[in-house]
Amino acid sequence: MTTYLGLDLGTSGLRALLIDAGGGVIGAAEAACSVSQPYPGWSEQDPAQWIAALDQVMAALKASHPAALSALAGIGTAGHMHGATLLDASGAVIRPCILWNDTRSHAEAARLDALDGVRDLSGNIVFPGFTAPKLDWVRLHEPESFSRIAKVLLPAAYLNFHLTGETVADMSDAAGTSWLDTGARDWSDDLLAAGHMRRDQMPRLVEGCEAGGILRAELAAAWGIAGPVTIAGGAGDNAAAACGTGCLSEGQGFVSLGTSGVLLAARDGYHPDADSALHTFCHAVPGRWYQMGVMLSATDSLNWLGRITGRRPAELSADLGDLRGPGQTRFLPYLAGERTPYNDAAIRGAFTGLASATDTADLTRAVMEGVAYGLRDTAQAMKAVGARPEALLMIGGGSASEYWVELMATVLDMPMLLPARGEFGAALGAARLGQIAATGAAPEDLLTRPEIAHEVPPNRALTEQFNAGYDRFRAAYPAIREIQ
User: Is residue 233 domain-shared with residue 253, that is, in the same domain?
Assistant: First the structure.
């Protein structure tokens, strides 16, 4: 038996998934990590937590599946994107990693974004959450730390460094730094210079399904692994999720209703449109890219409503019954600002159309509709650049709500595909990348779509009503922005 391991490093913890050569799940383990927020807008994590979590999940797998772990041949890593992990010349971490949801570098992001050629080379707006403005902030506010930087690694790349002793990163993760020429799939000396960085401070680039190194012998011995283990380049978390859901080629995509909301479409070519606030990133396999829009508060909006009403989100959703047309109450889901399509860190959420008769169910409908409309903003931007998925795989916690699934299908005017139970996320995608790197298999043969349990079509009887509701939603942003 030959096995493969996927490591998915999320903000709240690490998930390890052990699979066999056919993609069947052998075992899984998880370990938690915590986030530090010392000041408003700051979000940091000590990379030592990631290594402790790795030790914990590997010990659990060794205890539960020693024979299968012994047969490990390949590892793929996935991680939350944009994080700035700074290493000195000895490989030691200089300061806590500045995470993707840290907004302290908004002024530095605006400066970089305004420079000629930056969007053209990177294919993206320079968002405050990206890596380059974080380093510019360190340069200005922590010059002693900045002067010691020998390498900058993203979180998944730091795991690769621990696993192999080499500084290596994949294209999909690197595309979220604002240092990569995303079309050429290489570091850009011009972008690096704009951010006061150098090419020698960057890790070596490989494709996500390409071998990036070999597992260090001392780790293999500690984990009871018999033979050499290939470490793949890995992927940023959304690219890994695309691999796990089989979103590899033009016409394929998924919508994720998690804490944040993501609409992602695979692309066979490079078609950037930075002005739309779409992210255009390299995929984890050669010669492919993907585009996605991100809204910062998707199920988090319903979680917020649940907290203030004292109801669980599932209860709120269950009270709605069958899908109806838009309510009179509207919700702008900008509780933490917004990325696509506005790139507006200052905007905040709002209810409009409240009346004395408005009840909890009306608020719930408004929140769900606002999230669906916010993701339609991304769908509209994607259509403008030629990305037209035939249907969308729907994943994330929000996909458990039948009401929300039908609402999403109707608002986006696209069937929603619900996968059968099983593994299909970033950890599986990472494991598959490890398998490709170790075996040389064709990505198309392994990165396949999961079994679909159910397809939910748009409710055509309500299409025009929701189109009108979306128009009202779009008109509300500039009015609310004007008075905030």
Answer: no
Closest CA to 333 of 292, 379, 295, 380: 295
Domain that residue 31 falls in: 3-238
CATH number where 189 lies: 3.30.420.40
Q: Distance between CA atoms of 117 and 183, rounded to whole angstroms?
A: 13
362 in catalytic set? no
Hey, what are 239's tokens?
């690219």
22-39 confidence digits (pLDDT tens): 999 999 999 999 999 999
The count of domains in the chain is 2
Rounded CA-CA distance 49/32 in Å is 9
Q: Which pLDDT score is estimated for 243?
A: 97
Is 82 annotated as ligand-binding?
Answer: yes
Nearest to 131 by CA among 107, 159, 98: 98
Q: Please indicate, yes or no, whether residues 209 and 322 belong to a single structural domain of this protein.
A: no
Sheet of strand 253-257: strand arrangement = 279-282, 289-295, 261-267, 253-257, 392-395, 416-419, 452-456
Share of the chain above pLDDT 90, in %: 91
348 vs 162, 277, 312, 484, CA distance in Å? 40, 18, 23, 8
Q: Which residues contact 337 (CB under 8 A, 6 or more apart)?
A: 103, 296, 344, 345, 346, 347, 348
The predicted model scores a pTM of 0.92
Our separate counts of H helices and E strands in the chain read 18, 24
Which residue of the set 237, 300, 362, 377 is catalytic? Answer: 237
